[in-house]
Amino acid sequence: METDSKKLIGDQKQKGTVTSDRKLAHLQICLENDVQAKTITTGLEDITLVHCATTDLNFDEIDLSVEIFGKKLDLPFIISGMTGGHAFAHKLNHFLSKAVNDTKIGMGVGSQRAALEDIKVRESFDIVRKNAPNSLIIGNIGAGQIAQGLTSLEFQELVDMIKADAIAIHFNPLQEVIQPEGDIDLKRLHENAHSLIKEFQVPVIAKEVGSGFSLKDIKNIEKMGFKAIDIQGVGGTSWAGVESIRTLSLKHKKTGDIFWDWGLPTTLSTILAVNNFNGSVIGSGGVRTGLDIAKLISLGANAAGMAIPFLFSVQKHSTTEVIERIQEIEYQLRLACFLTGSENISELKRAPIIIEGRTAELMRIYGIDPSNYLHRKK
Ligand SMILES: Cc1cc2nc3c(=O)[nH]c(=O)nc-3n(C[C@H](O)[C@H](O)[C@H](O)COP(=O)(O)O)c2cc1C
Q1: Angle at 69 between CA 227 and CA 192, to 5 degrees
Q2: Cα separation of 5 and 208, whole Å?
Q3: Distance between CA atoms of 154 and 256, rounded to whole angstroms?
Q4: Measuring CA to CA, how many Å separate 323 from each of 90, 139, 337?
Q5: pLDDT tens digits for 286-339?
Q6: How many domains does the chain have?
């Protein structure tokens, strides 16, 4: 693993800003360590799509396309925001965006904060729009920057930089606290987010980074005026984990370890959002296969997102590797549609599913009857 990460990142002699150096360290940690959830899962294993042996579809004619944020995607899939802001991020975004353009899926960029601080790293973001002129591209900035008073002008710069079709504000309070230099004064967050969102036409997405959103969050998100939620629940990459590996402070390290699996599982959080939020929902956090995507769609998500697997697939420095991974995902999603007799994504949304285990228990606590998902009409 170490050799591969060296190959990808190379020897970075040039120092960047504090932000861009931190982004580099994050990448290196993700490539060299197991940073996945330890004791908790996404809950996707509790979902079973009911098999339909008498399917009468043509496998190749199943329509996986969707429309989201004004863009048509060939499949309901978005590579979640990861990179930008350092010289090597340019390479990464180059390979990812070329694959996104070829396969007609969507892609988020990593936090654009570094590009506001240092104009030199802007091209690591620009490259994405250059390579994928018509694709769904999503901008990214932290809730911390919003709380600190990011101006409308700066927000507009983020949109313009990549001609963003939508922009995600990432909520990561856990990560910020485990990061000794993190932004932990979020007092003005709701007020500032509300006034910024009001001013802009571009859809703004509330995105977590691996702890998901609760019912209270969903209400707050609606009040602030967000048009979409990108769940990023527990069960995949742990950012308390990444920061606990990165920090030298024993207090932060120990605490990061204790809170490694904190948050709401992806499946439960997606169900809560679909049932209580009036906007688009992207199911994400620990999504690893086309079958996982099918399950999230069947729960009502408009699309699904995946981050860390794509960091590994660009390691070989090739777009081919990324395209192959996307094609594999597409094949699995298509098979899930075929085997549930779903001719398109709208039909998959109404396919009967069985929900068991911890997810079913949690749903009952929230007053949602899991059996409703089995007896729905096509
Ligand atoms: C190397 C790396 C860098 C990331 N950087 C960002 C970021 O800048 N902004 C953001 O919103 N999320 C960022 N994320 C979080 C992902 O978008 C995603 O929410 C999280 O990793 C959970 O998804 P996964 O389990 O599929 O990895 C990053 C993830 C990785 C692996």
Answers
A1: 35
A2: 26
A3: 32
A4: 18, 22, 21
A5: 999 999 999 999 999 999 999 999 998 887 778 999 999 999 999 999 999 999
A6: 1
Which CATH number do you get for residue 110? 3.20.20.70
Residue 196 lies in a domain: yes
Is 225 inside a domain boundary?
Answer: yes
Phi, psi angle pair for 7, to nearest 5° = -60, -40
The residue segments making up the domain with residue 267 are 2-39+69-321
Contact 97 CB / ligand 1 (< 6 Å): no
Q: Domain for residue 20, yes or no?
A: yes
Is any ligand 1 atom within 6 A of the Cβ of residue 26? yes
In the predicted model, is pLDDT for residue 3 greater than 70? no
Tell me, using a 6 A CB cutoff, whether residue 98 lines ligand 1: no
For residue 360, is it within any domain? Answer: no
Separation of CA 115 and ligand 1 centre (Å): 17
Q: How buried is 53 (Cβ within 10 angstroms: 0-12 exposed, 13-18 middle, 19+ buried)?
A: exposed
